[in-house]
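Record type: monomer structure entry
Structure origin: computed from sequence
Chain ID: A
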Amino acid sequence: MENFVCVQCGTQFAETAGQPSRCPICTDERQFVRHAGQEWTTLERLAADHYNCLKEEASGLLGIGTEPEFAIGQRALLLQSPGGNLLWDCIALLDDQARAEIDARGGLRAIAISHPHFYTTMVDWAERFDAQIFLHAADREWVMRKSSRIQFWEGIALSLWDGMTLINCGGHFDGGSVLHWPAGANGKGALLTGDIITVVQDRRYVSFMRSYPNLIPLGAMAIRRIVERIEPFPFHHIYGGWWEANVLSDAKAAVARSAERYLRAIGL
């Protein structure tokens, strides 16, 4: 029995004797099956030729990614906070270097994930660091490996410790959420967004989509809801889901003008 991992999205499945027949996350319209067909691996095989890369994104914020690039190429963020460290989003591989670095920085109190494309091997991470996992209940169906460590939260916002807040924005997924970090940007506040609010190549702007690889846009109502739900929270920086996908000045204004530009482009 093994916990197979989807090569395309990095999601780990419950133990089975053989490979699952398909990955529901990849057959969903927001993702895709590899052109060569469905492919599976295991963490043991992945660790044989991949490693974790660690980079400081900001004071108290460590990026953790995988090299060579695996799955959708995202990186997780270790947010250090006085009340306990939080892992924002997740990657499939957890190697010895990353374990040692996280231990040296105080371990993990919890893991919070923006949406199912970043669930990956969250249960393995939680078990290694004796941590809780926060997922929005609207995305419960996409959990491929169940665990008592998962806490499904409901509603628009969930208050954590040290003033941090999970905010359900919807959009990309019904449970799609971002994290407000009030101590970020030297006390001006920061949002950690995955691609619920995605930082584009012109980092003066962000964008919003139902599917990025399949180019399915969101409607006007969804865009307005995202902007409305983050409005009460001050933030100067945005840290997205990939290396260097960050807005590092006047980020709240960047979201507002990006939403206005998007609505103009779709004729509303």
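Annotation 1: The radius of gyration is 18 Å.
Annotation 2: The chain has one domain: 5-265.
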